[in-house]
Write a structure and sequence with these properties.
mainly alpha; two-stranded antiparallel ribbon
């Protein structure tokens, strides 16, 4: 905002420092926005053979993981079966006494 004061016959204009600062800031923002380069990300080149080998390895690891889970479940069920069988045997023995 410009303020004006009248001294006798001349007009003196005072500059508002905030206005200048705001103009400078706005200009700097516009310049920095305009100058930002667009960075394109390059996709790494992949060899189709390497890609298929990687897929096969991942599939094998997934299969191995599922196989191990299956084995663990079977072991848990076998343990439960043994526990139940032992419990029933003890129960029968207690009845005979």
């Amino acid at each position: 905002m410009a303020h004006s004061k009248e001294n006798k016959s001349e007009t003196v204009t005072e500059k508002d420092p905030m206005t200048d600062l705001l103009k400078d800031f706005t200009y700097a923002q516009n310049v920095s926005i305009k100058r930002k380069p667009k960075i394109k990300k390059k996709k790494p080149r992949t060899n189709p053979r390497t890609e298929s080998i990687t897929k096969m390895k991942n599939s094998l690891e997934e299969f191995t993981g599922r196989f191990k889970q299956g084995e663990e479940r079977i072991t848990e069920l076998e343990d439960r079966t043994m526990d139940v069988t032992e419990f029933e045997e003890q129960k029968e023995q207690n009845k005979e006494k």
